[in-house]
Amino acid sequence: MVQTKEHNKCVKATIKVWGDTICLAFIISVCIAICVISSCNNEHGNTQNQPVSSRASLRKIPYDAWKAPDTTMIPAGKTGDMIRYGKELLAHTARYFGPNGNVARISNGMNCQNCHLDGGSRLFANNYASFIATYPKMSNRSGKVDQPTDRITQCFNRSLAGRAPDTNGHEVRAMLAYMKWIGRHVKKGQKLFGAATEKLAYLDHPADTVKGRAVFVSKCKVCHGSNGEGLLAADKKSYTYPPLWGDHSYNDGAGMYRISNLAGFVKDNMPFGATYENPQLTDDEAWDVAAFVNSQPRPHFDQHKDWMDLKTKPIDFPFGPYVDGFSEKQHKYGPYKPIINAQKRINQKVIKNENHEKIHLYYSSNNITGFCKTRQRTNRPCGLCRRYGKIRSL
């Protein structure tokens, strides 16, 4: 009898141990499952709460992307001296052409390198890789075939808010020598990754200057100053960090005054330390801070002769007239998609009318009579039929 009781106690103890073991094993299994799922989410799924730099880790530069040549490979002799001088002029333009320049005092104190980072060698920072290979080229802005020296002149007039240097002078020839050297392996018409600035997707709403100001205060003010005035270098001839608005910044004729250009530049280069692979701002933040910066006062440049062919005028060019009926404000800040759609319809109509008129001109010059197809149903001539004479049905 005693043995039976002891046996029952042992069975109960054993059952309890097994129960506790199973319960503990279940708890451990659940914890492991939660950890695995959480790890998967962090790696592949939920990126909403990750920092921008982490989310951007998937942005990779192609292995065959253009790379700037090593400056130690600049040749010796007079040719190399010219190239090195050109690089120096582009990196420290204000020392030579700024308000206290030692060659001429014709610019606002900014350097070419402020917009063409690292001496025009960085991807998505207006590099010079294809500059020489691109010219001469037809410019929709000027309405004529431009030479490389024309582009340098425009940069001095607009981005440096000053006057053009002598395009036949030693300094401009040195700049061109450096640009030719840095892009010496690029062929005309070659498409390069990261040649200008990134073209960000258009927002479906206007860029927000209020939100942009908040981005500026938190991310940009420390370098560019509370009032966008920049930080002068110790020599007082140039800027360590350039002014973003005001009398010494780029004027409203510069390419950076178009918000799409500035937003793409900011996305991949600002604040300090940002790159294409590891940006520090979201697309919305880049659009908004670009809108805020370009809403601030700056010198004006006469642009009444720019983009004379309105069909070629960029949609974010902030000065009219336009082929569409949208305001200057919407052209500047967006949203741009309604403008794009309207211009597509207008351009299609223009092309159709141009083709229609060509047909009239041809048949009229060949004395062919009849009505054109556009009014064939009504059996009445259209305006062009009356102008050029009846033509046959087409």
Structure in words:
The structure is a single chain. This protein is mainly alpha-helical. It is built from 14 helices and four strands. Among the domains are: 112 residues, Cytochrome c-like domain (Cytochrome Bc1 Complex, Chain D, domain 2, Orthogonal Bundle), CATH 1.10.760; 95 residues, Orthogonal Bundle (Cytochrome Bc1 Complex, Chain D, domain 2), CATH 1.10.760; 51 residues. The strands form two sheets. The chain has a two-stranded antiparallel sheet with strand order 1-2. A two-stranded antiparallel ribbon has the order 3-4. A hairpin with a 4-residue loop joins β1 and β2. α9 crosses α11 and α10 packs across α11. The longest helix is centred in the N-terminal third of the chain and has 43 residues. It is globular and about 75 Å long.
Give the terminus-to-terminus CA distance: 118 Å
- CATH fold-level label of the domain at 71-182: Cytochrome Bc1 Complex, Chain D, domain 2
- Strand neighbour order, sheet with most strands: 1-2
The CATH superfamily of the domain at 71-182 turns out to be Cytochrome c-like domain
Oligomer: single chain
CATH architecture of the domain at 71-182: Orthogonal Bundle
